[in-house]
Structures are given as structure tokens and as C-alpha cells.
């Protein structure tokens, strides 16, 4: 047919459908109907042919019926009155000897989605539930769910619900799964399908008969069932055990989710299940589907929160391939950071170093950031790589390196000397606002060690009129003020010009307000200014305990096999670096053994003879009141500190949910360890910050209204220290 306008096309198609010669030739008639459906798929409005297409459905040709039903279901809502004409044909087809015709008629009868036709659909659907053909029963079961969706306000007959429950024992597994899905929709307001012991065991015994989609549906619904005894629980776990090793990742994930739900009170069984799915998860990471690979990587990252060493021996499986998309490469790099240890750190760093020159700038910057995170544990090796990358003189690489070393010296101040030597000449390459803010922060904090710092800041100040980023301007103000305090002769003139411009000419109110604040601060005197801008810095001898504590499986089990791990991963990959560094999560190190054998005394570590505990107790309420901040002091005697390593002390405290922030070397005086924990109840959340000292007395700052939380914490901590002290014997 030659190309015509839409109106001419519809007119020509109507003429062909009404032509007796075309109707008598089945092949020509089917081809004409096919042209109508093709025109509909191309966006042509062919709703005017509805009456002609209704007549065309009265045929024994199954292919023609399918084409006509596609048209009728698409335009039924526009022609509700004419749709009544097709009901008789559909009801007649429901009695056809051919089960394919019967199922086709039932499916399209419910797909018309017209409330006025509900009374004509109920009887064929009820008969379809008892049909001898499984394909008809499948359609009829889902038809009742569609009918309920069409009239959600009306209640479906209880006899139909009972019939659907009885079909859960249908010999066809697809009918069984469809019944579960239909009952979920129909009984949504009542909490979904009711799962009792006979139904649960019946579904578990027939799990292998279902396809992948059906197994996932059954496993998801079984999560709401709770075994009545421990013997029943282990019987169910035995039935689920083969599915943990399923070659289909969706089935494996659904099985593990059910396993974790059932074993919420058995942490050892949960950890054992996580170890068993190591193989299937690694296989999913090599899937041909990119989406499957990314999902598997995100869920592995979730599992490492409870088992940090789960994938330690297989770290090479997370090396990036050249043709992999950037989002998969970045996820693998995050996993490599979590799997690094003393044995593989050299290989991992060499691999990440190769990614730093990737053609994709996001991948290159992610690799540099990963090296920086590893640098919190292995600072010397990582600093050597990062300073070497500065020699490439590439804008995006230099910017990422400057931001990374800024965050690194925040956590590891002992690296500052090497960082200051590497900063020379970086200002010529860094062009983006984030990189310039990081460079300015470093020049402000460590400007007394960088000989060219005043000249670099002067270049920034001279180009201030062309600067568009308010963040760079605010960081420049802070850096110049800090440098003025340590090198006043070289900085005084440029600081005056900077403050004058920001106060008199700057249009951004945030920049202007900060400049006014610094101007008024200078009027208060140099010493007051120094107290504000040059507070106490981190003690270089204070080592950070690297590694987050292993989380209980229950904290993340509900989010497994959902979209939440993917959303969390997307939030983590977004760049949030600003002009000043912020505390970030430390790099996990090899898992610490929490058994009592790890608390054995260490001959190298010799802490002082006495220990003091200093705590700050903070309460968080919806509306803070003044008396929430009233502090008191108490003195409590504690046993001598245990002769064990700081890592062993950290492991022991984690057993009672007390986390360790930082520590000094055991030979250093004063010897101290910083701790924190929190308690929650209905009305408040209390944060306890503590410091272990060598003195032997305890100073406690607390709120008088939360004595219970503090006394409980002191009792637990005293028990831990007594236990560790007794291990010396």
C-alpha cells in the first residue's frame, strides 16, 4: 500500500475490512488486520475501525484472533459500549474444545479492563479455575487478580478465595505460583496469603518443580513463616540448603534472604550460609549480563560488612577488565580496598596504579581515591604512588591526587612532610574547583612548611575577580588567614586586599559574611584569632585503629535481595568532597579474631600500671533543653590495664558493642584509648564518648538524667577490663 496520511490510511483500511472479496480470502483478510495492528503500533489512531475489528474476531483462525484481541484490548477503554459486542464471542470461545482458544479468550476478557463487563467475566473465570487444561487454570487464576485490581473496593467472594487456596495443591507448578501471586493481590489489606505449616512444607517440597521466577516468588512469600520448633527450623534449612548453591543468581539470593530471615536468632548459622554462597556470588560476578555483575558486586559489598574476610582469597576476581563499564570498575575498586591486607597490598596497589591513567576520568579518579583509602593503613607505599602521579601533569589526575592527600593527612598527620614536598608546582595543573579547594586547604594548614605558599595564594588573590566558585573564595579566605598567623610578613598585604575585595565588592553573601567574620576576628587580637583558626591538631603518635567492626547480620539482612544495596552504592560513589576534609570511614583491615584466644597477653605491649576512664555522655532529644547539657564528675577505681595489644582490646570491647576510635602506642606516656558507644530507648538516644587514661582514677562527665545508661556502660567496661587482666596469668 502506498504511503498515505493517517486519515486516508484509516479510510483505506476500513474499505478493505468491509470488502466481501477480502473477507472471503482468509489470507488477505488476516494481512489487512495485520496492517491495522502495524499502523496502531506506529502511533496512527485507528480507533475508528473498532466495529470492523469486532466483526473480525468471529473466526476459527487462532492467529487472526490474537491480532484482533490485541487491537480490542488497546481501544476498549475508548469504546466501552462497542466492547459489549465482543463479549458474546469471547464467552463462546471459553467453551471451545481447543484449550489454547479457551485460555486466549479468558486472558483477553480480563484485559479489556472495563468495570461494566465484570458481571460477564466472573462466570467464565470461575469455570476456568476447574478447567482440565493447566494453561486455562493459569490464566483464570491471574484473571481473578486482575478483576480485583479493577474493582478494589468490592470484596471477592469467599468461595473464590477458598478455591484459590485449594489450587495451591494443583499438580501444575505454574498454577500454584500464580495462586500465590493472586492471593497476595486479593488479600493485600489482610496481610497477604496466610502461610501455615502444611502450606509452607508443601511449597518447600515442590520448590524444585518451579521455574526460576516461581522459586523466587515462593521463597519470598515463605519469609513471613516462622517455624514452631527448632526441629522444624532445621528441617526447613535442610530443604533450602541445595538452593543456596543454585546456578541461578535470583534463586540463590532469594534462598539466602529466606535463610537469614529464619536464622535471625542463630548468628552462627547465618555466617555459615554466607560462606556457602561465596561460590555462586563469584560466579555471578562473571556473568555476561552487566546488570547481574553490578548487582552481585553490590551484594558482596553488603556481605563483607559481617564477614570482612569472605572474599579475601579471591581478590583477583575483582580486578577490572578493559571493556567493563565505568560503574562496574568503580564498584570493583571499592571491593579491592576492603579486601586489602599485608599479603596482597603490593599487587592491589599495582593494579590500582594502572587504573589511574584510564581514559575514563571518573574511573581514574576513583582509582586514586581507592589508593588514598588504602593509604590510611599503608601510608608510605600509597604516598609514593600518589606523588608519582603528580609528575604526569594531567589536570584530572592532579586534582584527584590533591583531594586524596588532603583527606589522607587529615587521618594520618604523620604523612604531612611528604605531602608538603609534593605540593610544589601543583597549582599550575589544578583547574577544577574541588581540586583548588583541596590545594588551598593544604596550603592553609601546612603553609609554614611550603616555601611557595604565599606566592601561590597571591596568584589566587590576583585572579579573584574571575573566580566563579564561592567555595574556592571561602577556602582562600581561610587559607590566607591561617598563613597570616604563621607567616605574617609575607601575607599581610595580600590578606588586606583579599578582605577588602570580599567585603566591598563580592556579591555572594556567604563569602562576604565570612570575610566580615575574619575582619572582626582580627580586631579581637592575634591570640584570639589563633585560638579559632589554629586549634589543637591530631597527635602524630596517635594511631587510628583501621577497620570497622563486623556488623551483626541482622542489621542488613532485610535489605538483602532488594534494591537498597544498589541505592546505597550509588550514594557512596557520588563525589561529596568539599573545601575542607571530613572524617570518613576507615579502610577495613583483615578481620580480627574475636575468640578468647586472641586476648592472650603480648610481651611487646606494656601499658602503664593504672588506668582512668574519662567519659562524655550526650543525650539526643527531639527538643533539647538547657539542663540536658549540665555535667557532673564521678571517680571510680578500675583494674590495671591488660597486657594485650590494642587490637585485642578493640576485639574484646566490640563483643559488648563498645567501639574503639584511636589509641596511642603502648610505650607512649600518657597511654590512652578513645572509645564510644550509644544506647537507645523510646524517648532518647545517648552517646557516650570515653578515654582510657593511665592514671587509675576515673573522671566522668555525664547528664544526671541518664544515670542508668552510664552505670550500665561502666559495669560492662569494668567486666571487660577485669577479663583481659585475668588473661595475663
Automatic annotation (TrEMBL):
Compartments in which it is found: Endomembrane system
GO-annotated cellular components: clathrin adaptor complex; endomembrane system
Recorded topology in the membrane: Peripheral membrane protein
A Pfam entry, by short name: Adaptin_N
UniProt-listed InterPro entries: AP_beta (IPR026739), ARM-like (IPR011989), ARM-type_fold (IPR016024), B-adaptin_app_sub_C (IPR015151), Clathrin/coatomer_adapt-like_N (IPR002553), TBP_dom_sf (IPR012295)
Subcellular location, principal: membrane
Sequence ranges assigned to domain Beta-adaptin appendage C-terminal subdomain in this UniProt record: 618-722
GO biological process: intracellular protein transport; vesicle-mediated transport
UniProtKB keywords: Membrane, Protein transport, Transport
Region (Disordered): 567-603
Biased composition (Polar residues): 570-579
Ranges annotated as biased composition (Low complexity): 594-603
PANTHER family on file: ADAPTOR COMPLEX SUBUNIT BETA FAMILY MEMBER
Family: Belongs to the adaptor complexes large subunit family.
Name recorded for this polypeptide: Adaptor related protein complex 4 subunit beta 1
Organism of this sequence: Myripristis murdjan
